[in-house]
Amino acid sequence: MADIKTFYLPDLGEGLPDATVVEWHVKVGDSIKLDAPLCSMETAKAVVDVPSPYTGKVTKLHGAPGDIIETGAALAEFEPDPNAKQRAESESTGHHHGPKKTEAAPAPAPAPAPAPAAAGGDREDEGTVVGAMVSGSHVHVEQAASIGGVKAVPAVRALAKKLKVDLARVRPSGADGVVTMKDVKDAAANGSAALGATPARAVPASAGRHLAPELPQGEPSRTTTSLAGKPVRTAPPSQSASGQPEQLKGVRRNMARVMADAHAQVVPTTLVDDADLHAWIGKQDITGRLIRAIVFACKTVPALNAWFDGKNLTRTLHPHVDIGIAVDTDDGLFVPALRNADMLDGAGIRGAIKRLRSQVEDRSIPASELSGYTISLSNFGMFAGRYATPVVVPPTVAIIGAGKLSHDVVAVIGGIEVHRRMPLSLTFDHRAATGGEAARFLKAMLDDLSLPN
């Protein structure tokens, strides 16, 4: 009987309990070489290629694209080639390839500031996507792999799949013929590489008419079963309903976990007020002014620029100001850290924010940039809303929410005036800071925002 080896989903270096299958690069019966790309998996941060641990034949694949696989669960089975050189069982690959273990790992080296322990106790919690990113000590570098004659990193392949772009028809612009994120986005925008589409016929410019978009030919048939073939009920039989429940994956899945943990751990209290911007001179960078005001308030009231360990009841005040800036994406919420905000001028702040947003959008941001910030900012007012109760994610103590600017009638000596004002919401963990400290912090922000420039 052939010797069958089972490959278990390794810890992909982010400390998360599961990952989602994006794409298999092989099928059952295929031969594969050691370290060749086996599949692409999506975690809360990125899409990464999982390499094959054997040279041999693939005998079974556990899970289809879109399925969630727990870390330590079976991913694939192989029949190793007895004539090929295999990796030694004890040889380190940078990933753990065996079933998930429950015993605690050796304690990490002392850190400058303690943080709450991660669930399971196998390493310290270095943050999560919503608030920070859990990360391990192994650094994963995405490299472009040639699959089907197309060179691209896993994140690009995932984007192409999402946008229904045929990578084989995309013109690469990267070094050595590598397809980049921009190539895929451009192809999706101009429709030059639609998946499964036949080459479009050129339309003469002299036609002189607008082409109406094609309308779907009838609605797809509805059934009482899900796409997986299982019965699904979203309402009592007496009610009509549409839609099917779906598993949260990647960033949204981790966001749900983090929000639940934060809700269970923090004692939140919110103060609100309006910053009067009437004295501002000329056009100013609103986000830059907000960050400057946060820095000023942190220096005035250090108690909110801190980490709090609820288990050990310890507080760490930070001399520097690293601001976690919430970035909303279709995949979920990311919170990259604006490092050393207290040392940046207006141009430096704007440049750093632009870089962080770009890295979040193309999923190239390092895990180290999604952890370790000392206070948070949610500028939700750029969309809608005046006041809010943003969620404080441990170990941080406070988060500032900036609402939608408005022109309000205000009373002044001798009459009334119309002033532009910014609603502010300060949510803080009342275990770590007093109401007086929070009020003085908010007052410091209001004072700085009221300055002309």
Automatic annotation (TrEMBL):
Compositionally biased intervals (Polar residues): 236-245
Biased composition (Basic and acidic residues): 82-94
Keyword Transferase belongs to the record: yes
GO molecular function list: acyltransferase activity
Known EC number: 2.3.1.-
Disordered, as annotated region: 79-125, 210-249
Enzyme class: transferase
Lipoyl-binding domain segment(s): 4-79
Entry keywords, A to Z: Acyltransferase, Lipoyl, Transferase
Cofactor: (R)-lipoate
Domain spans labelled Peripheral subunit-binding (PSBD): 151-188
UniProt key word Transferase: yes
Similarity remark: Belongs to the 2-oxoacid dehydrogenase family.
Assembly: Forms a 24-polypeptide structural core with octahedral symmetry.
Protein name per Swiss-Prot or TrEMBL: Dihydrolipoamide acetyltransferase component of pyruvate dehydrogenase complex
Natural source organism: Rhodanobacter ginsengisoli
